[in-house]
Design brief:
This protein is of the alpha+beta class and 376 residues long. The protein contains 15 helices and 7 strands. Strand 4 and strand 5 form a beta hairpin.
Length: 376
């Protein structure tokens, strides 16, 4: 089964050169269960791009099960077209109502860095608006057919960085929308709002219309912080997004300014090389340090760490996170450079996570009263 994660990891690249395609094809020859491969690729968010690479590499498994990947690709192409169209329509409606907004994550990346938008799956569409205009933005979207949940799904999410989800069915597809007041989770260091961005918004142009998204520094900080949110392992689509964005805008990014504002990002790029091999254009960030155990493993969520009967052990796990995540999140260099300070920061960070949930729980109850989703 080792060949399946290898194929999926190698395939998590937007622009695969001949050498990468050859490596993907070689690894694919050892795959016995192509349905399992398709399921893994779908879970990691890379099914359409992997199908593209396998097709270009002329990989034709005897059982023809690669057609499962093709079916997923067709489905995602249709869904992305609808979601991008909806985002452009709603963005124009918000602008008309005097609300400045910006696209976050998938809907912007699909149009900016992928050869075709349909190659980037997405679960929902995300707007960033000013906190003071979030309720008005919801009213505008309700006027355009979206229905929002009255409450967050958990009492621990009262201080969440986006409003309860909204939904509307468009051409048979359920489109989910989130209205964010901050680009990053409240658990992450710093708070990125429309009013404190490091760079001006950039424009995304699509056949359905134009809309705004974050500038380069803010985009990379948001993508990296999102990728490192607590969980089990980093999703390969997140690694692909980050590497693909850096490759696409390499000449436009002010790397010195980025390193000054967000010093953890260059270090994270190097450590990402252990999860998904970097494209040749980013070879200067190849990882050349000491071995790191369990690349891609994240710090556990509060819910999983502090489940019933394991709170003491859970806090120990939270305070001693996986090495790869710890170095990525706090920018710890080779040889433990900066580790002592990072340890102190991490204790403080876990205190913030705990305090936010306690404060949120005191403020009310969400639907069902259970923490079904990690707090943002």
């Amino acid at each position: 089964m080792r060949s399946i994660p290898e194929v999926v990891s190698l395939g998590a690249i937007i622009n695969a050169d001949d050498a990468r395609l050859a490596a993907i094809a070689e690894a694919a020859r050892n795959v016995d269960d192509w349905n399992a491969l398709a399921q893994r690729a779908e879970t990691e968010g890379v099914a359409p791009i992997l199908y593209r690479h396998l097709s270009r590499a002329d990989t034709s498994p005897r059982n023809g099960a690669v057609q499962t990947l093709r079916a997923l690709s067709v489905r995602h192409r249709h869904a992305t077209e609808i979601r991008v169209g909806e985002f452009a329509r709603l963005s124009a409606a918000l602008t008309e109502a005097g609300i400045e907004s910006a696209a976050l994550k998938g809907v912007a990346l699909a149009c900016l860095i992928y050869p075709r938008p349909g190659l980037r799956p997405m679960r929902d569409i995300d707007f960033l608006v000013r906190p003071s205009q979030a309720r008005l933005a919801r009213e505008v979207l309700e006027d355009h057919g979206y229905r929002f949940e009255a409450e967050q799904p958990s009492r621990y999410m009262r201080l969440h960085h986006h409003l309860p989800n909204g939904q509307r069915t468009v051409d048979g597809l359920v489109v989910s929308v989130e209205i964010h007041t901050s680009a990053n989770s409240g658990d992450a260091p710093g708070r990125t709002t429309i009013d404190n961005l490091a760079a001006p918004l950039q424009t995304v142009r699509t056949p359905a219309g134009a809309f705004a998204t974050l500038g380069h520094s803010d985009m990379l900080n948001q993508l990296c912080r999102h990728a490192l949110e607590p969980g089990t392992t980093i999703r390969l689509v997140s690694a692909m997004d980050i590497q693909g964005y850096c490759e696409r805008f390499d000449a436009d990014i002010d790397w010195e300014d980025l390193a000054r504002r967000y010093p953890y990002i260059p270090n994270f790029l190097r450590l990402l090389d252990l999860v998904v091999p970097l494209p040749p254009a980013l070879s200067r960030y190849r990882y050349r340090g000491e071995p790191v155990e369990h690349p891609g493993r994240l710090v556990p969520t509060m819910t999983s760490a502090l489940g019933r009967g394991r709170r003491f052990r859970g806090f120990i796990e939270l305070l001693n996170p996986p090495r790869w995540w710890f170095r990525s999140y706090y920018g710890v260099g080779d040889g433990g450079r900066g580790e002592y300070r990072a340890r102190l920061r991490h204790v403080s960070r876990v205190s913030v996570w705990t305090g936010r949930r306690m404060l949120s729980a005191l403020g009310g109850t969400g639907r069902g009263g259970e923490n079904r989703k990690r707090i943002g």
